[in-house]
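Give me the 3D structure for P-type Cu(+) transporter.
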Amino acid sequence: MAAKLISLACIRGESSSTSYGNLSPRPHYPSMPKYPKGFLPLDQQEKGIEGPESKALFSVVGMTCAACAGSVEKAVKRLPGIREAVVDVMNNRAQVMFYPSFVDTETIRETIDDVGFQATLVEDETNEKSTYVCRIQIKGMTCTSCSTTVESALQAVPGVQKAQVALATEEAEIQYDPKVVSYNQLIEAVQDTGFEGILISTGEDRSTIHLKVEGLRTSTNSMRLIENSLQALPGVQEVDIDLELSKVSISYKPDLTGPRNFIEVIESTGFGRFKAMIFPQGGGRESHREEEIKQYYRSFLWSAVFTIPVFLTSMVFMYIPGLKDVMDTKVVNMLTVGELIRWALSTPVQFIIGRRFYTGSYKALRHGSANMDVLIALGTNAAYFYSVYSVLRAATSSNVKSMDFFETSAMLISFILLGKYLEVLAKGKTSEAIAKLMDLSPDAAVLLTLDSEGNVIREEEIDSRLIQKNDVIKIIPGAKVASDGYVVWGQSHVNESMITGEARPVAKRKGDTVIGGTVNENGVLHIKATRVGSESALAQIVRLVESAQMAKAPVQKVADRISKFFVPLVIVLSFSTWLAWFLAGKFHGYPKSWIPSSMDSFELALQFGISVMVIACPCALGLATPTAVMVGTGVGASKGVLIKGGQALESAYKVNCIVFDKTGTLTKGKPVVVNTRLLRTMALREFYELVAAAEVNSEHPLAKAIVEYAKKFLEDEENPTWPEAQDFNSITGHGVKAIVGNKELIVGNKSLMLEENIVVPVDAEEILAETEGLAQTGILVAIDRKLVGVVAISDPLKPSAAEVISILKSMNVRSIMVTGDNWGTANSIAKEVGIDTVIAEAKPEHKAERVKELQAEGYIVAMVGDGINDSPALVAADVGMAIGAGTDIAIEAADIVLMKSYLEDVITAIDLSRKTFSRIRLNYIWALGYNIIGIPIAAGVLFPSTRFRLPPWIAGAAMAASSVSVVCCSLLLKNYRRPKVLDNLEIRGVIVE
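Predicted structure for P-type Cu(+) transporter (993 residues):
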């Protein structure tokens, strides 16, 4: 029964957290960099590191489990000059970041060989990434047709592997081969479609900073002087100067230089003439959004200034005695003062304020597509130019009165601009989650200057955006940690709940890593910055959320397909409506009494045609899905559930079967010794000294649990010393063998004892059966080939596990447990949490096969796991959910990351996805229903029976309102509250560890 216990431990590998003395366990952050503790000798750490950093990729043959990977990683990190080492057991790769002045690739390779694995340097992949991800801000898109046009243009560029254009965020995310195409060519491709492209990031290993330079003159000499001075700095790759904004944008490698160096160079270049600082608002997405809001606001205000008098002269003053006479005063022939005023006021609205619609129409039509701008331009032009024709006819005739629609074109443009203003205002709120994440970073930091002995000689408060790599920062109690790094001095507790969700403060001392944005609770810390700017953990989480908001949900394809023929169809319907009403009037198809006294049959038909054209709204359809996905993923991030895009959301809401891993998912993943049964008389201290001496060389979680427990028998728990073990041998999946103090020790499962021909007595068999019945793992210990004891190790259930399974049953979601553990322990755990179907002693590939079998039976399957061995199943499942405290490989393979490692967040993820897709359906019902009902009403279907008609300016207002209503409907998701039953779990203290 215990035959697979050590195998399970081997597979689980490093998914269990390691304890450091009496400190809290170190959490593992999703998609974040690892910082090895003490990658250089202490004196070299304090002096700092000089010289460039290199990266090497090794192919490692012979690794079979996470324990193997852990051995390789541990051995490499012990070398001097190693900054980072990550071992991927699934792909047999090891990536090492190192300083060549301390260590070379050959030494690293030999070290891996010494561990017992064959390592080969992979030359081709160490130099340059084959794929970059570029992000571009796109200005001017109005509907799905625009985004589809840009996306098609980008996809057609050689070297582009994938392009996604999001209308809601007005951004493009492009995966491209930098050897074939550059990001500048991608921006040109965007601009060729008629839209403005602004680079956000290139995906290259560099950062960008924007500086405002006071005193920058418009002369080319000043500009060239600054540009040449900056280009001379090591690590500076590109300098762009905007004289109009006095802005200098610098792309650089953060390993070699940083923003403080740039400011110093700029200010020293001009002999005091120039003063540099961080550019306000960073010149990024938020500043663009705010500028767009201001532009629409200004346009609407100016439009209203001209439109209100037009409205008054056409609809109000005509009913006021005195004013009516003034308005009806003839100027030339039948041309009146009122018509002249309306013509004069509506012209700037049509051609100056409404210029954006002409520009947008031209761009769209030039590329063979039609968008909302085309409808608006056609509708307003029809009203305006017919009015001009009517006015000119009145001015040249002594008996023909004018019937103008100047108020139609002016009010149409005003209402549409108001609608766009409200729309961009609402769309800005859909990405508030990202803004809140970014706000976690402090505004200021205290920079320390150290002497050669490591003593503080100066403190200086700086903008946190000016922090550079290897800076030493002081963090006082109550302050936020300003940068990712490691502690070089001091002790404290840090609240990391905003990133990990773990409410308990984590103890920090010299050598421990800290994450930017977390809060220092009590003591003073000095930290050395290792990851700044876009490399930080917080920035990586922000990028993950941004990528999620970019990704299209499959349901959005419906809107994309409709958008291809929507505008042409509306134009045809509009023309058909005008023609039908015009012919009906010309051939007396309806009584003349239907025609209002202020117009003729042609004008009535024209109004119906214009109303059809401007009431149709492709924008609402285009915004229905992306705005809901943006808000849904943002809300998820704020709840500690990172959802990687619309595809994951759409799949999650359909889930009706969940496959749970056991260790680290249903259980805490931190094995502890719970019982010891000796079969012969000996001191417990002596027993554990011998066992720990053998197990201390193993990386297995169960071995670590034994060693940790054995420390309790020593006086100095912090620095334990064990007897020396000789001839150590780790038997994968079984246990270990060693010689300790002239005694032969064999520690492992029952199958190992049988292979070594060691008799397992009946009472030991009974103890093993009892242990498995209690959901514990039994480890047998033999000394000098005689069984002397059984160590029972338990991995406690997560407090909320049983309740979560019960809630899922009430949601009609089936739960299954798949584990590599033995059947006895697996069945015991399953019975305790309430799971009926159990698959035990499963290898990683078996887990993936079981997921596929369930899919073949018709289930939509979610897999919840945390280990390297879970990654094949996470990929195979319809939705992969990774526990946040798990391994990087599991997290990369997953569609949803549960950052807080709380099991109940599985329910939150499913419930949130269901609520989000309910909102998407509601948006589609509204957007499609609005067009299906609105277009016939605008075409006049109610007019014969009720004499009700929709004036074009009201139709335009309704069109603008439809887009705003869809965005506002999506924004209601911000009020999402997770199921109340989960709050009850917290109240009962179930999730409190």
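Confidence is low (pLDDT under 50) at residues 1-51, 124-128, 987-993. Let me know if you want a second pass.
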